[in-house]
Amino acid sequence: MKDTKLLKGTLQTIILKLLSGTKRMYGYEMTQQVKLLTEGEFILTEGALYPALHKLEAEGLLDTAIEVVDGRARKYYALTVKGKKAQVSKMKDALTFVEKLQVILNTKPIVS
């Protein structure tokens, strides 16, 4: 996706949605899942992902746990109860936005 501003505006919703489908994930795993699901069209950079994760954690929407895997510390993220509620709300908002955007994009301009 060439316009990363569009992706950045939905990053929190994407993260919450990814975590709603699993018990927990770590950052790199999220980047790979998005790449796989979008067939490489959306690329989440670490520079965009980790600040969003830290913000969601600070807001109480994510819990974290650090585990050592293959000799390296890995930080896992999971939804809190508050995060699960926020995910449902953000998904409703995102779906409404996409629906209304499709209406606009599929409408011929009115010529006055």
From TrEMBL:
<feature type="domain" description="Transcription regulator PadR N-terminal">
    <location>
        <begin position="15"/>
        <end position="86"/>
    </location>
</feature>
<dbReference type="InterPro" id="IPR036388">
    <property type="entry name" value="WH-like_DNA-bd_sf"/>
</dbReference>
<dbReference type="Pfam" id="PF03551">
    <property type="entry name" value="PadR"/>
</dbReference>
<dbReference type="InterPro" id="IPR005149">
    <property type="entry name" value="Tscrpt_reg_PadR_N"/>
</dbReference>
<protein>
    <submittedName>
        <fullName>Helix-turn-helix transcriptional regulator</fullName>
    </submittedName>
</protein>
<dbReference type="InterPro" id="IPR036390">
    <property type="entry name" value="WH_DNA-bd_sf"/>
</dbReference>
<dbReference type="InterPro" id="IPR052509">
    <property type="entry name" value="Metal_resp_DNA-bind_regulator"/>
</dbReference>
